């Protein structure tokens, strides 16, 4: 039976859910107040956890499924929207002295293509990337092409309820009625909307990025070492990122950190030394303990669902996370075990000290 969904949040979590629900014949309205620091716009678009062997299976289950699904998703979104999100299976080279053996063993166990290049270099040919601003534009256009409605510059302040049922989303004087509501507010989902508990332990984790102009490098794949990655784009631009900072909702960049990033990028790719970055920005990831998102019904309501806390890998996870959410909302059997992504499981997880730098 066709239902009408109202989605709050126009990052990849909200847009991918809207896209999937429309594909299944449902009605969707999506509201987004693009806060500065929207994580999806700011991200690198690498489709893989940075060293998957460092993460819990609950992260990798969504990430690996997302990696498998993205080629088809990207092609269909491009077909519907006419906008190319620049899916590129460029591969990732990891310079990882300490974790190479562990990495190879993990890849063998998980049937994940990996090759030792010698000299402590590891090559992961299956890693791909998307170009985030283009992905956002493409998803939004694919949604409207399927008769979905997007309300830009629209801040939802709360939900009007009747008992345990939400009946409308409120934006100033305006109200939007729907059958089912999804709260996909990224880092802001860790703050309460009026009358509604915040998503447990979700908090902003700032990441700063640098961009280099085309012509400054000959890199044709992602390069990673010690927390720093370089990502070449199809048109020759190069990204360098990123940081993990506890700066609240401050999405500004800081000159000292940008300088450190530039130094680190030049150490990894000495050819960059002669070129100043042409642009920098910061984004606020929806941080969560252990990087495990919450994909579950909101405990205060019968018809409000949550998708947030994807932290460092929300783009990678989007096809799998939105599929799971759609299955749960529509009452079909989930294709993977939803237990790690429940609200209650999130309540039981804690942030480790020093997981995020305080600079
Ligand atoms: C520097 C950086 C690098 C990254 N690199 C990668 C990577 O390589 N690979 C990867 O997979 N992931 C990466 N990520 C993480 C990824 O970007 C996030 O996990 C993902 O984008 C989160 O999507 P989201 O939709 O939950 O949040 P967001 O993209 O932040 O979207 C949430 C939206 O909700 C809106 N909103 C909030 N409250 C309201 C309200 N009340 N009313 C209306 N709208 C509201 C916000 O303004 C925002 O637009 C990176 C992130 C950063 C910052």
Describe what this molecule looks like in 3D.
Helix 1 crosses helix 7 and helix 3 packs across helix 5. The protein is built from 8 helices and 19 strands. Strand 9 and strand 10 form a beta hairpin. The mean pLDDT is 95. It has an 8-stranded mixed β-sheet, with helices on both faces. It has a 6-stranded mixed β-sheet with strand order 8-2-1-12-19-18. Strands 9-10-11 form a 3-stranded antiparallel β-sheet, with no helix packed on it. The protein has a domain of 219 residues: FAD/NAD(P)-binding domain (3-Layer(bba) Sandwich), CATH 3.50.50. It is globular and about 60 Å long. It starts with a strand and ends in an 11-residue tail after the last helix. It has 359 residues and is of the alpha/beta class. It binds flavin-adenine dinucleotide.
Brief digest:
This protein has a domain of 219 residues: FAD/NAD(P)-binding domain. By secondary structure, it is an alpha/beta fold.
What's the helix and strand layout?
Elements lengths: L3 E5 L3 H12 L3 E6 L6 H4 L3 E2 L9 H25 L10 E4 L4 H10 L5 E4 L2 E4 L3 E2 L2 H14 L3 E4 L5 E5 L2 E7 L2 E4 L2 E4 L19 E10 L9 E4 L2 E5 L5 E4 L13 H14 L10 E9 L6 E4 L6 E5 L5 H17 L12 H6 L11
Parallel strand pairs: 1-2, 1-12, 2-8, 4-14, 12-19
Antiparallel strand pairs: 3-7, 4-6, 5-6, 9-10, 10-11, 13-16, 13-17, 14-15, 15-16, 18-19
Helix pairs in contact: 1-5, 1-7, 3-5, 3-7
Bound molecules: flavin-adenine dinucleotide.
Keywords, separated by commas or semicolons:
single chain, 359 residues, alpha/beta, 8-stranded mixed β-sheet, 6-stranded mixed β-sheet, 8 helices, 26% strand, binds flavin-adenine dinucleotide
